[in-house]
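S2.1 Query sequence (Membrane associated serine protease, rhomboid family)
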Amino acid sequence: MSTLPTQPTPTDPAKRILPPNPQAAAIIALGFTLVLYLVELADVLISGDLDQGGIHSRDLSGLAGVIWAPLLHGGWSHLFANTVPVLVFSFLAMAGGLGQWIAVTATIWILGGLGVWLTGPSGAVTVGASGLAFGWLAFLLVRGIFNRSAGQIVVAVVLLGIWSGMLWGLLPGNPGISWQGHLFGALSGVLAAWLVARASRKKDTGSLAV
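Output structure tokens follow.
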């Protein structure tokens, strides 16, 4: 009686740690960061005060800032502080593929921005990609729990160890820093991780029900 060779168990895409195409993911992360630098350079060269296109809290005329705020920064030092987190977190957040990354990023971008618009201090204009960075970090920190992935949890512990100081940005403190942007970015990242895990479980259940 012959036996069929054992087939290797395929890797669960939901539990990937690195992007399926690391080179493409790196190019996208670098490209997005380059856009941030080009926008800041344009702001310096034309002296047009592009930062006024940021989020104006509870001002209907400034609601469009939800779209533009992550691309704007209050100077080079602000952009430099966001560069490494944006590069690292955006790259790792592409583990589920480009389509999932776009959906996760859009969730953080829009919901995080709306949270700032609703709760930010009156008269303030909020700019910067730190809300995105906090959102991606939160997504990476909790996705392993939702996906029941030991590997992703280990990565989350490493990221938390390296960037644990960022967590202070979730609390009120320096009046020049938008803790609202950080907090709502992080909450949106947690929501995005839950939605991704839920969609993945539904897809797995549907594939079994044949």
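Helices lie at 22-46, 65-68, 76-92, 98-119, 130-147, 150-162, 179-208. The domain at 19-204 is CATH 1.20.1540.10 (Rhomboid-like fold).
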